[in-house]
Amino acid sequence: MNYDNFTTFNVKTENAIAWVTFDYPPVNIQGLAMLADLNILAQKLETDRNIKVVVFQSAHPEIFVAHADTNFLKDMSAIAVSREEVKLLDLQVVLERISKLPQATIAKIEGFARGGGHEFALACDMRFAARGKAKFMQMEVGMGILPCGGGASRMARQVGLGRALEIVLGAEDFDADQAEAYGTINRALDPDKIGAFVDALAKRIALWPSESINATKQSVYESIDLPIEDALRAEAYWLYQATSQTPAVKRFKWADEKGAQFDMDNQRTWPDMLVKIQDINQEEQ
After folding, report:
1. What single-letter DSSP state applies at residue 67?
2. Residue 68 annotated among the catalytic residues of the structure
3. Which of the residues 119, 129, 149, 242 is marked catalytic?
4. Beta carbons within 10 angstroms of residue 199's beta carbon
């Protein structure tokens, strides 16, 4: 798969990981060019079984991804439309496509991620931010609109209603440690630690079967809005999707017949054993 010729970022693929580095001077603005690039990237990734993890980062020393280009809304009609007439915005469509990628997606944030840039990060599966560098904000309410790329809906699912409204209506910057406390990111990390941490996590996830990664993602996302009984049914459905496409059954058979699951040393070293077991039936992944 060719990942060249993007305008707003470059892509490097290595060891089943795609490193997507935003590089769109002067401020990595989230405009039509970036959305077009992200749409093409998603189209490629959706069918690329060789890529298991996608890490989004920035070449800009101060900005991850800036807010959405004001050109999106300046020509918008000031006349309200009915619910029946409403169509999803381009920003919503593209970020939802990023959210549903079969790969695990990680945002490595080492600068400003405000407005649409923050909404892009929220559309990723995981977010890690550098202390002293990352800043987050939803400024839309002060501009007379509201977050329209998932900054209201995804954030509410992430942190709860009250906290989401505090962030959106307050329209204030918050840093990496506050984001970790709020729950909008997974972890705040020191600037000299974030690179190694994300690299290690991406490489570990990339060891697992691509079908297992996708099935896990879809099950987790699907369960968010379902009653527990329906969520469990979704888990069972995605379990069958994984076992039908990965070496899972043969690995479990190996664990049973070889007695690996009854070995106390193995029980003590599951994280390491999980890596070693990838060699079993690897040719079938």
Report:
1. P
2. yes
3. 119
4. 14
pLDDT 10s per residue in the chain (285 long)? 899 999 999 999 999 999 999 999 999 999 999 999 999 999 999 999 999 999 999 999 999 999 988 776 666 666 777 888 778 888 899 999 999 999 999 999 999 999 999 999 999 999 999 999 999 999 999 988 888 888 888 999 999 999 999 999 999 999 999 999 999 999 999 999 999 999 999 999 999 999 999 999 999 998 888 888 888 888 898 888 888 888 888 888 877 777 778 888 878 888 888 888 888 764 444
Is 117 one of the annotated active-site residues of the chain?
no
Answer yes or no: are the C-beta atoms of 236 and 214 closer than 8 Å: no
Instruction: Please tell me whether residue 63 adopts helix, strand or coil conformation.
Output: strand
> Can you state the percent helix, strand and coil of the chain, rounding each to 5?
50, 15, 35
Query: Which candidate in 42, 115, 140, 206 is catalytic?
Result: 140
Active-site annotation holds for 140: yes
Q: Which residues contact 263 (CB under 8 A, 6 or more apart)?
A: none
DSSP-derived letter for residue 48 is -
Q: 3-class DSSP state for residue 151?
A: coil
Q: Which of 115, 116, 150, 151 is catalytic?
A: 116
Tell me how many helices (H) and strands (E) the chain has.
13, 10
Question: CA 275, CA 268: separation in Å to the nearest integer?
Answer: 14
Choice among 68, 130, 164, 215 that is catalytic? 68
Which domains does the chain carry?
A: 9-205 (3.90.226.10), 210-284 (no CATH)
Note if 235 is an active site residue.
no
DSSP letter for 277, please. Answer: G
- Strand 63-65, strand 112-114: pairing: parallel
What pTM was computed for the model?
A: 0.91
